[in-house]
Amino acid sequence: MSGTQQRTAMGAQEVAYDFEQETSSARVFPVRFLGMGLFIAWLSCTHISLIFPGPGCDLDARTAFDMGMRVGDIGTFVMLALLARRIGVLSRHPSTCFALAALCAAGTAFIGLVAMPAGLHYNLIFAFSVPTAIGGAVLFCLWGQVYCSMGMTQAIVDGALSCITALAMSGLVAVLKPPFAVIATALLPLVSMIAAALSLRVLPLERPADLSQRYPMPWKLLAIMAIGSFIMGASSLFMDNADYMGSIHRVLATGVFGTVVLGLAWLHRDKLDARTLALTALGLAVFSLVLVPFARGSLGGAVSFTAKFAFVFFTFFVLLVVVGIVRRFEVPSLRLFAVTRIATELPLLLGLLLMRAVRGSGVLDSLSMRVIVALVGLVLVLVCVVIWKSEASVNADWGAQGVGIATNVHEPGPQEVFLARCEALAERYGLTARESELLTLALQGKTRSQIEQELYLSANTVKTHLRHAYGKLGVHSKAEAAELLESVE
Asked: Does pTM surpass 0.70?
């Protein structure tokens, strides 16, 4: 650091910085962002037979409903992936999104209130379930766009809060008596859609895709996702009452995950990132597989819950990686989220089919067979680790950054150039990770109050970090910091 910069830093308290002149607005908790939790709650409630349609239901009818929903889900994601370039930014089609969310709500209500109680043929229940899933798939991609418009810290915190919201809402629906539980479940997609629309009104709008570029898929990331999903789908192999307890375990794991991540964000915010989530998922997955040879009775439930807990961590890790790719490299979110979901749902379905085929056959009564299953699972986890380690960085593009159609060369966009300059500036002047994060937001034109709300920090904390950052740079305003940024190659 030069002598001038040292003197500036030492006298930082005597200088008036521009952000200190800004008035703080009232802090508003962004309840709208928790709408993702309502979507997760809809998924959870429709997968628990004790809630949807209720106790004493025909399990074969439930199976037809589950299969129809999964087929409709996967089919919709395939169509969204194929038509993504033509559709463009999903939020630019609000009428279609609301119509499909309404179709999802209506289908959920009809199946839960009419089709199943009336004992319609299983093929009809399957047929009605397929279009019901379309709105859910679109809603997932829309929430993907919402999260890609957030900063990473905001995505982590709001994601964790949404998981807690999902558990709380699922529990609330569960205590309702029929038919109110089904009615409440049917309303969740509509309320979630409204929340998504309100969220997009206050977040930066995604830029349309650059038609001069093609966007490869992050195949390594998708391969890891597929393996993890298959293991999760088969994780209820050793559990009694798997038809509904597996879904209950997944809901509980989601809520516990949200609580753990929220606690980590509060206590060790600087250490909470995608890498931490991936390592946690890896440890939980290995632990659940080690239990497999002993998975009899209650231990079978422990294997199921631990595997699902690991899967929630892993799913959130993938979400953060995809969000990072979209934000930094300006990759269109729709196709990426649709393909990621295909890589989740299809292997998950295969794992469930395997579970249903093997369960009850007596094949897994043998200790040697359970040991073989555990070893196969550990090998699959090892494959995931090898694929992960082959990538230069968890926060890299995973091969998904845009490439010029004519040149076949990556051409950095404005956002990528801006973030690279901010990182270089932070490294040159010795800024901490938190100082760098706040300075980047300030250089994006955000006010101090907006930074406070996005990062869930107090006014004094934001002032302190910005004061330190400005002092190290030897500047007193955003304009001066922007000039300094422009000098960075």
From this structure: yes
